Amino acid sequence: MTTYSFAQPQALTASPAWKALQAHHRKICATSLRQLFADDPQRGDRLAAEGAGLYLDYAKNRITDETLDLLEKLAEQCCLRQHRDAMFSGKKINVTEKRPVLHVALRAAANEQIYVDGKNVVPEVRATLARMAEFAEQVRSGAWLGYTGKRIRNVINIGIGGSALGPVMAYEALQYYSRRDINFRFVSNMDATDFIEATRGLDPAETLIIICSKTFGTLETLTNAHAARDWCLEKLIDKQALRRHFVAISTNAKEVSRFGIDTTDMFGFWDWVGGRYSLDSAIGLSTMIAIGAERFSEMLDGFYAMDLHFRHAPLRQNLPALMGLLAIWNTNFLDARTVAVLPYEQYLARFPAYLQQLTMESNGKHVTLGGANVDYQTGPIYWGEPGTNGQHSFYQLIHQGTHLIPCDFIGFCQTLNPLGDQHDELMSNLFAQTEALAFGKSLAQVSAEGIPDWQAPHRVFQGNRPSNTILAERLTPYSLGTLIALYEHSVFTQGVIWNIDSFDQWGVELGKQLARRTSPELESSDEPRLAHDSSTNALMRRYRSLKKE
Ligand code: F6P
Atom of ligand 1 at shortest distance to CA of 159? Predict the structure, then answer.
């Protein structure tokens, strides 16, 4: 099959590959990782793969070679290869929004050709990157001055969801490479505290505001954008000043100009880029100002290297496909409901939050592409914190609790900030955690250590808890790009198997609609007649009465 088709031949759970995996699970579910490693001394070398500079150790998953064979059959049955090719060639695989899904075009090589409605989009992508680079370099060099002639010392990114999480995560991840004489701040929340604290102590005459919104219709972003405009005008008075202090990143030129930003001060992108996949579009402008155009382009090269790997590596060596299929195994056959992402790298502190939108907005779906209710679990809950911090808070539950929580450990062989032997210490914690999770500590071992009988059960680690370990040489813009693309394509792989639309996000609409109805009721000075359910009515009445006081 070469053409794109979203219809699966039969219900996933009734399909031969699924049933074979269920039977296989029944067969191996009592086999422990301890046993699997004892039976095969080469397991650690064999169940590992390398691509685009990343090394993935997946040996500490509860799988055998047969599991991998069966997962590969599942991928074939679900036409993973064909769906992947459909995405890369611009087919409208976001079926509910009737759009292509082409974040991969944002980092494609200049000589690639990717067509949307008969037009090669790569030249437009490149042209936007060139404009961004020119602007970013002007800000960095001081050639771009504020209205009163002062240099730009502060950059504030206003946006939410994909228009915030990518920029803030990448800024923090690449802070080592970033300009230290420019302050970068990020405002997303409707809570005014976010804006007030971000602007505290800053001079509008030295501040560049980047309004990021794909739709330019998001309430939080527009509210903060208006607050920013008022904040600037209070000091700079003249409306003409805004042109030196505001730029917009959007697909919606009409709304940008309605807001009052000249569209020549706008950097565009396209409706075939999902918000949570938009970091390498103009949404990454703040990152580019922070690290410079050249390093931004190295980040895109990293994304591209992983794209090529995903397209061309055979499945057994294909990192995103393997991670995606292992997530299916853990979620649907081992019944895991969450995944912990544990970067042993302080600069990646916001990476789990970024992945939450990427994974959960993409695969938190309950109907198939054809609209039928699924009868299997879809996207698990992603969460996490950097190591070693997490070890002193929630790892207790991962080691000895009753939930099975597959973990992704992420580490770098070289640190950017050498200090004594701290990096060896950090990494030895990472390796030790993966060992402890997999192999645990039996009652016999505990007793042999002389632990009294009454306490021994409390000190037993059951082990047999799965994890992946991802290693890279060093955190660079390039390796960050490969890491993000790894997860993007893993999410894609999972969505294909589950036969869902990983690229829409209708689930965020209902809350927005209801809030629109509720806000006038909270704001009105007359007592409104509330027609919500009794719980919501009572909460709103209480809020109104206390708010008055
Ligand atoms: O939360 C829903 C959502 O549409 C996300 O998908 C998106 O990243 C975010 O809102 C922000 O949207 P926009 O960039 O259009 O302001």
Answer: 16
